[in-house]
Specification:
Elements lengths: L10 H11 L9 H10 L7 H15 L5 E7 L2 E10 L6 E6 L6 H14 L4 E6 L2 H12 L8 E4 L3 H13 L11 E9 L6 E2 L3
Parallel strand pairs: 3-4, 4-5
Antiparallel strand pairs: 1-2, 1-6, 2-3, 6-7
Helix pairs in contact: 1-3, 2-3
Length: about 200
């Protein structure tokens, strides 16, 4: 299977990802298994975070949760780059991908707070494969001890597949228009004529 997000990423992570994706099949009913199987094929575990991010982008594309922006800088939010932004003029969604958590969730929380300062109705979610730390973080979120993160999902568990279904059914994302708040990032959207990725203009 060839990747539908050919323009995403680069370097060693992209090479490893391309080798893995060619050996895989995609089942839209079990996207979490697609990610789990893919990460298990990864030989260089130091690249896990970057490859996880590519798999999440691949999954969004194949489920047609598009358009979305990858590796994003947003107007009025200086010195911050977001992993993935699904743009909506009122309810944008930010996805932060981190293979391991520990104290790293604080970075996602900080970024989420910055985003919400500009987009009050935004939703910010943390995507990870770090089960033990995710359990702890979910409890902190439920108790209101973490600001800037609305939820945490394990990408290799069914909860992530269910989350993506809800995301697709609940929102209709769009390209940022008028005064474009996106100052950096690769726009990934469906090309109606060919089904291939249409690069940002």
């Amino acid at each position: 299977m060839k990747s539908k997000v050919k323009k995403l990423g680069g370097g060693e992570s992209r090479k490893e990802y391309d080798k893995i994706i060619e050996t895989m099949n995609f089942n839209p009913d079990s996207t979490h298994k697609f990610i789990s199987d893919g990460l298990h094929k990864l030989e260089n575990t130091n690249l896990r975070g970057n490859v996880l991010e590519l798999f999440v982008c691949e999954t969004l594309k194949r489920l047609e949760i598009t358009p979305f922006y990858h590796q994003v800088r947003v107007d009025k939010i200086p010195d911050t780059e977001f992993d993935i932004v699904c743009y909506h003029p009122v309810y944008p969604v930010v996805l932060s991908c981190k293979a391991s958590l520990r104290e790293r969730y604080k970075q996602a929380a900080y970024e989420g707070c910055n985003f919400k300062n500009v987009y009050r109705n935004a939703k910010c979610y943390l995507i990870t494969v770090d089960k033990s730390e995710a359990v702890k973080l979910k409890k902190k979120i439920e108790k209101g001890k973490v600001l800037g993160i609305d939820g945490c999902y394990l990408a290799d568990h069914k909860e992530f597949s269910d989350f993506l279904i809800d995301l697709k059914n609940q929102y209709e994302f769009s390209v940022a228009k008028q005064i474009n708040p996106i100052t950096k990032g690769k726009l990934i959207q469906k090309n109606k004529s060919s089904g291939k990725v249409k690069p940002a203009s």
